Amino acid sequence: MTFKNILLDIKDGVATVTINRPKALNALNKETLLEMLDCFVELKDSSEVLAVIITGGGEKAFVAGADISFMQSLTAAEGKKFGELGHGVLRAIENLPQPVIAAINGFALGGGCELSLACDMRFASKNAKFGQPEVNLGVIPGFGGTQRLPRLIGKGLATEILFSGKMIDAEEACRIGLVNQVYESDKLLDECMVLAKMIASRGPAAVQLCKEVVNNGIEMDLNRACSYEADLFALCFATDEQTEGMAAFLEKRSPQFSK
Ligand code: DAK
Question: What is the DSSP string of 58-102?
Answer without folding.
Answer: SSSEEE--B-HHHHTT--HHHHHHHHHHHHHHHHHHHT-SS-EEE
